[in-house]
Design brief:
With about 180 residues, the protein is an alpha/beta fold. The chain has eight helices and five strands. The protein has a five-stranded parallel sheet with strand order 2-3-1-4-5. The model has no long low-confidence stretch (mean pLDDT about 90).
């Protein structure tokens, strides 16, 4: 089984993907990690790379082709990426939602702990929230422009879960329940 995990920034995609992969004994891939590597190779931050992507489709299509290839050549893995579900349509598709303020609080806490970096000055929760809103606007713009999709529309997913008041472990439990129901 292939599981794709999409979601808004700060929803816990990476954390949940890691926990779920560990629980199922699956390999885990991350489109976000790949895009960060691609940005770094060009001497850019992820923010700058996403902005470039609004004009240069290649920044998205390379990562999306990678996800598509994985879906065609492998099985029993988890991949987190905002539109991985679109390129691996036979996957079990999960969307993790989160209230914007909760997402910003999580990201700000990670930033203070040195787990996240940003090209913008992050001095407050407000800075993080603004950055997340700009990133989401860029993502929405690119995915509509290049693929004609709204990445967070509930109709695309087999399981939609709000992590705002949940722990990652609880999210994994709920995902596993949803998977069992479909088998």
């Amino acid at each position: 089984m292939i599981i794709t995990i999409s979601g808004h920034a700060g929803s816990g995609k990476s954390t949940v993907a890691n926990l779920l992969a560990e629980k199922l004994g699956y390999k885990r891939y991350s489109v976000g990690d790949l895009r960060r590597e691609m940005a770094q190779k060009r001497g850019l931050t992820l923010e700058a790379y996403n902005k470039l992507g609004e004009k240069d489709r290649k920044t998205d299509t390379e990562a999306d082709a990678w996800a598509k290839r994985l879906g065609e050549t492998q099985d029993d893995f988890i991949i987190d990426g905002r539109v991985a579900w679109h390129f691996i349509p036979h996957s079990f598709k999960i969307f993790l939602d989160v209230q914007p303020k909760v997402a910003a609080e999580r990201a700000f806490k990670d930033h203070l702990a040195g787990k996240r970096t940003s090209e913008r000055a992050v001095l407050s929760l407000k800075d993080v929230l603004q950055g997340q809103q700009e990133r989401q606007a860029s993502d929405v713009k690119r995915y509509r422009k290049y693929y004609g999709i709204t990445y967070d529309d509930k109709k695309h997913f087999d399981f939609y879960y709000d992590t705002s008041k949940s722990t990652p472990a609880k999210a994994v439990q709920e995902i596993l329940k949803a998977i069992r129901k479909t088998r």
